[in-house]
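Tutorial, part two.
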Amino acid sequence: MIKVSDTASKKIVDMMKDDGFDATKDYVRVGVKSGGCSGLSYELKFDREIGEDDKIFEDNNVKIAVEKKSFLYLAGTILEFSGGLNGKGFIFNNPNANRTCGCGESFSL
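Running the prediction step on this input gives:
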């Protein structure tokens, strides 16, 4: 499962609305791809459709779609949002990551 913090949930719902998506029907697609300074990087985008190989979760009023192969890397992750002085953006607190880069956008196992 993937969890969503209160702060991230509010930000996602607002961003979805701004981009013409409906948080009650549409999904946040979370994934992993090769790349980044640590080997793997996170993907986050909005989607209206789900695929055959997607795992679907709902937490804190956010519907999440994750492809099965990405889920292996993301199980137990908490999606958070930081608006602090050190930068603004989404943070993936991933218990599976052995190492993360300084920007927090990539990781390795």
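The first helix runs from residue 6 to 18. In part three we will examine how such features are distributed along the chain.
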